[in-house]
Amino acid sequence: MNRKVLNVIRILVILICIGIIIYESTHIYLDQKEYTVAEDEYIEIVNKATSVPLFQDDDAEIVDYPLLSINHAELSEINNDYVAWLYFPALEIAYPVVKENTVNEYLYKTFEGTSNKAGCIFEDVLSDENFCGMHDIVFGHNMKNGSMFGKLKQLYNNKESAALIDSNPYIYIYTKDHVYKYRIFAYYRTVVGSSAYSVVENKSDYEEFIKFIEPQTTYKIPSDISFNDCPSVLTLSTCSGQSGSGRRFVIHSVKIGSWQTAGN
User: Fold this and answer.
1) On the CB side of 145, how many CA atoms lie within 13 Å of its CA?
2) What's the predicted TM-score (pTM) here?
3) In the predicted model, is pLDDT for residue 147 greater than 70?
Protein backbone atom coordinates (compact mmCIF):
# COMPACT_ATOMS: atom_id res chain seq x y z
CA MET A 1 0.00 0.00 0.00
CA ASN A 2 1.57 3.30 -1.08
CA ARG A 3 1.92 6.41 1.02
CA LYS A 4 -0.84 8.25 -0.84
CA VAL A 5 -3.43 5.58 0.00
CA LEU A 6 -2.28 5.53 3.65
CA ASN A 7 -2.72 9.30 3.88
CA VAL A 8 -6.25 9.03 2.48
CA ILE A 9 -7.11 6.32 5.04
CA ARG A 10 -5.70 8.44 7.87
CA ILE A 11 -7.77 11.43 6.75
CA LEU A 12 -10.91 9.28 6.56
CA VAL A 13 -10.30 7.88 10.05
CA ILE A 14 -9.78 11.40 11.41
CA LEU A 15 -12.96 12.63 9.72
CA ILE A 16 -14.95 9.69 11.11
CA CYS A 17 -13.62 10.39 14.61
CA ILE A 18 -14.52 14.07 14.32
CA GLY A 19 -17.99 13.10 13.11
CA ILE A 20 -18.49 10.79 16.10
CA ILE A 21 -17.34 13.51 18.50
CA ILE A 22 -19.73 16.04 16.94
CA TYR A 23 -22.58 13.52 17.01
CA GLU A 24 -22.03 12.59 20.66
CA SER A 25 -21.53 16.22 21.70
CA THR A 26 -24.76 17.22 19.99
CA HIS A 27 -26.69 14.47 21.77
CA ILE A 28 -25.18 15.40 25.14
CA TYR A 29 -26.13 19.05 24.54
CA LEU A 30 -29.69 18.19 23.50
CA ASP A 31 -30.13 15.80 26.46
CA GLN A 32 -28.83 18.42 28.87
CA LYS A 33 -31.18 20.97 27.35
CA GLU A 34 -34.11 18.57 27.90
CA TYR A 35 -33.09 17.91 31.48
CA THR A 36 -32.86 21.65 32.17
CA VAL A 37 -36.37 22.15 30.79
CA ALA A 38 -37.68 19.36 33.04
CA GLU A 39 -35.86 20.73 36.10
CA ASP A 40 -37.23 24.24 35.48
CA GLU A 41 -40.73 22.78 35.18
CA TYR A 42 -40.46 21.08 38.58
CA ILE A 43 -39.02 24.17 40.26
CA GLU A 44 -42.06 26.09 39.01
CA ILE A 45 -44.38 23.34 40.27
CA VAL A 46 -42.74 23.39 43.72
CA ASN A 47 -43.13 27.16 43.90
CA LYS A 48 -46.78 27.03 42.85
CA ALA A 49 -47.88 23.99 44.84
CA THR A 50 -46.14 24.51 48.19
CA SER A 51 -46.62 27.55 50.40
CA VAL A 52 -43.73 26.89 52.81
CA PRO A 53 -40.02 26.16 52.19
CA LEU A 54 -39.49 22.41 51.90
CA PHE A 55 -36.12 22.22 53.64
CA GLN A 56 -35.83 24.04 56.94
CA ASP A 57 -33.17 23.72 59.64
CA ASP A 58 -35.44 24.83 62.47
CA ASP A 59 -37.81 21.91 61.74
CA ALA A 60 -40.52 23.55 63.84
CA GLU A 61 -43.34 21.03 64.02
CA ILE A 62 -46.37 20.53 66.16
CA VAL A 63 -47.05 17.05 64.78
CA ASP A 64 -44.84 14.09 63.97
CA TYR A 65 -44.37 14.99 60.31
CA PRO A 66 -43.04 18.02 58.37
CA LEU A 67 -45.74 20.64 57.96
CA LEU A 68 -45.78 21.13 54.21
CA SER A 69 -48.71 22.99 52.72
CA ILE A 70 -49.40 21.19 49.45
CA ASN A 71 -51.94 22.58 47.01
CA HIS A 72 -53.37 19.25 45.87
CA ALA A 73 -56.20 20.92 43.95
CA GLU A 74 -53.81 22.88 41.76
CA LEU A 75 -51.61 19.84 41.16
CA SER A 76 -54.66 17.81 40.15
CA GLU A 77 -55.68 20.60 37.79
CA ILE A 78 -52.26 20.43 36.10
CA ASN A 79 -52.39 16.64 35.86
CA ASN A 80 -55.45 14.59 36.82
CA ASP A 81 -53.21 11.54 37.35
CA TYR A 82 -51.66 13.28 40.36
CA VAL A 83 -52.05 11.21 43.54
CA ALA A 84 -49.58 12.49 46.14
CA TRP A 85 -46.54 14.55 47.08
CA LEU A 86 -43.41 12.60 48.05
CA TYR A 87 -40.92 14.06 50.52
CA PHE A 88 -37.62 12.36 51.47
CA PRO A 89 -35.90 14.85 53.83
CA ALA A 90 -32.53 13.08 54.26
CA LEU A 91 -31.82 13.45 50.52
CA GLU A 92 -33.96 16.56 49.95
CA ILE A 93 -36.17 14.82 47.42
CA ALA A 94 -39.59 16.41 46.94
CA TYR A 95 -41.84 15.78 43.93
CA PRO A 96 -45.45 15.31 42.92
CA VAL A 97 -46.32 11.69 42.14
CA VAL A 98 -48.63 10.56 39.36
CA LYS A 99 -50.30 7.17 38.98
CA GLU A 100 -49.59 5.60 35.61
CA ASN A 101 -52.55 4.18 33.68
CA THR A 102 -50.41 1.96 31.48
CA VAL A 103 -46.94 0.51 32.06
CA ASN A 104 -44.17 3.14 31.75
CA GLU A 105 -46.66 5.81 30.67
CA TYR A 106 -44.63 8.48 32.49
CA LEU A 107 -41.15 7.10 31.83
CA TYR A 108 -40.48 9.88 29.31
CA LYS A 109 -43.28 12.31 30.08
CA THR A 110 -43.12 15.13 32.63
CA PHE A 111 -45.75 16.05 35.17
CA GLU A 112 -47.14 18.65 32.77
CA GLY A 113 -47.33 16.07 29.98
CA THR A 114 -44.30 17.20 27.97
CA SER A 115 -42.23 14.56 26.17
CA ASN A 116 -38.88 14.55 27.99
CA LYS A 117 -36.24 11.92 28.85
CA ALA A 118 -36.30 13.08 32.48
CA GLY A 119 -39.79 11.67 32.80
CA CYS A 120 -41.82 11.98 35.99
CA ILE A 121 -42.03 10.44 39.46
CA PHE A 122 -44.76 7.84 39.01
CA GLU A 123 -46.51 5.09 40.92
CA ASP A 124 -46.65 1.62 39.43
CA VAL A 125 -49.84 0.74 37.57
CA LEU A 126 -50.57 -2.15 39.97
CA SER A 127 -50.02 -0.12 43.16
CA ASP A 128 -52.76 1.48 45.24
CA GLU A 129 -53.33 5.12 44.33
CA ASN A 130 -54.20 5.91 47.96
CA PHE A 131 -50.93 4.36 49.18
CA CYS A 132 -52.74 1.79 51.28
CA GLY A 133 -51.62 -1.31 49.38
CA MET A 134 -49.51 -4.03 50.98
CA HIS A 135 -46.71 -3.05 48.56
CA ASP A 136 -46.73 0.21 46.62
CA ILE A 137 -43.91 1.11 44.20
CA VAL A 138 -42.78 4.54 43.00
CA PHE A 139 -40.30 4.97 40.13
CA GLY A 140 -38.01 7.83 39.09
CA HIS A 141 -35.02 8.31 36.81
CA ASN A 142 -31.49 8.31 38.22
CA MET A 143 -30.58 11.70 36.77
CA LYS A 144 -26.91 12.67 36.61
CA ASN A 145 -27.69 16.18 37.83
CA GLY A 146 -29.30 14.77 40.98
CA SER A 147 -32.88 15.61 40.02
CA MET A 148 -35.75 13.10 40.16
CA PHE A 149 -34.30 10.05 41.99
CA GLY A 150 -30.72 10.97 41.06
CA LYS A 151 -29.82 11.59 44.71
CA LEU A 152 -30.50 7.96 45.60
CA LYS A 153 -27.05 7.13 44.20
CA GLN A 154 -25.65 8.74 47.35
CA LEU A 155 -26.71 5.61 49.21
CA TYR A 156 -24.87 3.03 47.12
CA ASN A 157 -21.87 5.28 46.39
CA ASN A 158 -21.40 6.41 49.99
CA LYS A 159 -19.75 4.29 52.69
CA GLU A 160 -21.52 6.43 55.27
CA SER A 161 -24.95 5.85 53.74
CA ALA A 162 -26.25 4.03 56.81
CA ALA A 163 -25.36 7.01 59.00
CA LEU A 164 -27.04 9.33 56.50
CA ILE A 165 -30.28 7.36 56.69
CA ASP A 166 -30.09 6.84 60.45
CA SER A 167 -30.00 10.63 60.88
CA ASN A 168 -33.47 10.90 59.32
CA PRO A 169 -34.81 7.51 58.18
CA TYR A 170 -38.23 8.67 57.02
CA ILE A 171 -40.14 9.15 53.79
CA TYR A 172 -43.44 11.04 53.75
CA ILE A 173 -46.37 10.73 51.37
CA TYR A 174 -48.90 13.59 51.35
CA THR A 175 -52.22 12.70 49.72
CA LYS A 176 -55.25 14.96 49.58
CA ASP A 177 -56.66 13.51 52.80
CA HIS A 178 -53.74 11.90 54.63
CA VAL A 179 -50.06 12.14 55.49
CA TYR A 180 -48.24 8.81 55.70
CA LYS A 181 -44.91 8.35 57.43
CA TYR A 182 -42.60 5.50 56.35
CA ARG A 183 -39.47 4.16 58.05
CA ILE A 184 -36.69 3.03 55.71
CA PHE A 185 -35.65 -0.52 56.55
CA ALA A 186 -33.70 -1.80 53.52
CA TYR A 187 -31.95 -0.83 50.31
CA TYR A 188 -29.87 -2.71 47.75
CA ARG A 189 -29.07 -3.17 44.08
CA THR A 190 -31.18 -5.58 42.09
CA VAL A 191 -32.37 -6.20 38.53
CA VAL A 192 -35.54 -5.68 36.51
CA GLY A 193 -38.11 -8.32 37.32
CA SER A 194 -36.64 -9.39 40.65
CA SER A 195 -38.80 -10.13 43.69
CA ALA A 196 -38.07 -6.58 44.88
CA TYR A 197 -41.03 -5.66 42.65
CA SER A 198 -43.38 -8.34 43.98
CA VAL A 199 -47.12 -7.88 43.75
CA VAL A 200 -48.23 -8.47 47.33
CA GLU A 201 -51.90 -9.28 47.83
CA ASN A 202 -52.06 -11.41 51.00
CA LYS A 203 -50.19 -12.34 54.15
CA SER A 204 -48.38 -15.24 52.48
CA ASP A 205 -47.14 -12.98 49.65
CA TYR A 206 -46.07 -10.43 52.25
CA GLU A 207 -44.05 -12.91 54.28
CA GLU A 208 -42.28 -14.20 51.15
CA PHE A 209 -41.54 -10.63 50.11
CA ILE A 210 -39.91 -9.77 53.45
CA LYS A 211 -37.95 -13.06 53.37
CA PHE A 212 -36.56 -12.07 49.98
CA ILE A 213 -35.48 -8.65 51.23
CA GLU A 214 -33.66 -9.79 54.38
CA PRO A 215 -30.56 -11.35 52.68
CA GLN A 216 -30.48 -8.69 49.94
CA THR A 217 -30.27 -5.49 51.95
CA THR A 218 -27.01 -3.64 52.53
CA TYR A 219 -28.72 -1.68 55.29
CA LYS A 220 -29.36 -3.52 58.54
CA ILE A 221 -33.08 -3.90 59.13
CA PRO A 222 -33.89 -2.10 62.43
CA SER A 223 -34.71 -4.57 65.20
CA ASP A 224 -37.68 -2.51 66.40
CA ILE A 225 -39.61 -2.87 63.12
CA SER A 226 -42.32 -5.53 63.19
CA PHE A 227 -43.85 -6.99 60.04
CA ASN A 228 -46.31 -9.22 61.91
CA ASP A 229 -49.36 -7.14 61.01
CA CYS A 230 -48.22 -6.64 57.39
CA PRO A 231 -47.86 -2.83 57.47
CA SER A 232 -47.79 -1.18 54.03
CA VAL A 233 -44.41 -1.19 52.29
CA LEU A 234 -43.40 1.66 50.00
CA THR A 235 -40.58 0.98 47.54
CA LEU A 236 -38.65 3.65 45.66
CA SER A 237 -36.89 2.38 42.53
CA THR A 238 -34.39 3.85 40.09
CA CYS A 239 -31.72 2.72 37.61
CA SER A 240 -28.23 1.99 38.96
CA GLY A 241 -26.24 1.17 35.83
CA GLN A 242 -25.91 2.09 32.19
CA SER A 243 -29.09 2.52 30.21
CA GLY A 244 -30.43 -0.85 29.13
CA SER A 245 -28.38 -2.79 31.67
CA GLY A 246 -31.44 -3.82 33.68
CA ARG A 247 -29.71 -2.92 36.94
CA ARG A 248 -31.83 -1.19 39.56
CA PHE A 249 -31.55 0.27 43.07
CA VAL A 250 -34.46 0.03 45.47
CA ILE A 251 -35.29 1.45 48.89
CA HIS A 252 -37.95 -0.26 50.99
CA SER A 253 -39.82 1.58 53.73
CA VAL A 254 -42.65 0.55 56.01
CA LYS A 255 -45.62 2.68 57.07
CA ILE A 256 -45.40 3.65 60.74
CA GLY A 257 -47.70 6.67 60.94
CA SER A 258 -50.89 8.05 59.42
CA TRP A 259 -52.68 11.36 59.94
CA GLN A 260 -55.92 12.57 58.41
CA THR A 261 -55.75 16.11 57.08
CA ALA A 262 -58.29 18.66 55.98
CA GLY A 263 -57.13 18.33 52.39
CA ASN A 264 -57.16 21.09 49.77
Assistant:
1) 14
2) 0.82
3) yes
